[in-house]
Amino acid sequence: MLRSESGTRGAPRAGRQTEFAFGEGLAGHVAVTREPLVIEDVAADPRAINATWMHEEGCVSVLCVPLLVRDRLLGVLSLLTRHRHRFGPAELESLVSFGTQAAIAIDNATLLHEARTRQGRLETLLEVSRELSRIQPLESLLGRIAEACGRLVNAEAAGFRLVERRARGRRDGGRRP
Q1: How does DSSP classify residue 43?
Q2: Are 95 and 65 contacting, i.e. CB atoms less than 8 angstroms apart?
Q3: Which residue segments constitute the domains of the chain, with CATH numbers given?
Q4: Is the separation of the CB atoms in 82 and 58 below 8 Å?
Q5: Angle between helical axes of 138-152 and 89-133 (0-180°, round to 10)
Q6: Distances (CA, A) of 11 to 3, 5, 15, 52, 70
Q7: Of the chain's two ends, which shows fewer C-beta atoms within 10 Å, N or C?
Q8: How far apart are CA 114 and CA 122, in angstroms?
């Protein structure tokens, strides 16, 4: 699935389809082939899903470039012009190279986000470990652990339900659960 994330013309959901399956639309085609796609007249291309929006925006020519890192597709960069444009070999080479650099930057940003998320989780686990090692009243301990566990998985609420131990000779026949 490809999803529109950012662009220079309007909000990502401004009157156009923003999610495409691989093979669907121009970007979906590029996702499957992993090859740049140059279209001089987008209105004449039947693969264009958002043809009405492109027409309303005055878009005429399109270049779609796959964003690849180590043969892994991260997305598709789409460039649209308001005039008929034939992308020449040098221009195409420059834009493909730019797409490669953009893909590396996106991959690095994603890795950094994942590392920070992991670091936050590890810090929370360390905090829980410290709480467990401190001697403190049970209610306080459970409250802190529940709070930390909730932060760990971004839960709105967390809590404990403990087994109630009854004294021997009560209704449970003295058996412990």
Answers
A1: G
A2: yes
A3: 17-114 (3.30.450.40)
A4: yes
A5: 170
A6: 13, 9, 9, 16, 31
A7: C
A8: 12
Judge whether 146 and 160 are in contact, CB under 8 Å: yes
Main-chain dihedrals φ then ψ at residue 86, nearest 5 degrees: -100, 110
Alpha helices by DSSP H, 134-174: 138-152
- Cα 121 to chain centroid distance, Å, stands at 19
Q: Tokens 């730019």 — which residue? A: 98
Tokens 């058996």 locate to 175
Distance CA(113)–CA(46), nearest Å, equals 38
Alpha carbon distance 35, 28 (integer Å): 11
Calpha distance 75→99 (Å, rounded): 10
What pLDDT, in 10s, does the model give residues 19-71?
Answer: 878 888 888 899 999 999 999 888 888 888 877 778 888 888 899 999 999 98
Distance, in Å, from the CA atom of 106 to the CA atom of 74, rounded to the nearest integer, reads 8
Please tell me the distance from the alpha carbon of residue 111 to that of residue 89, in angstroms, as a whole number. 33
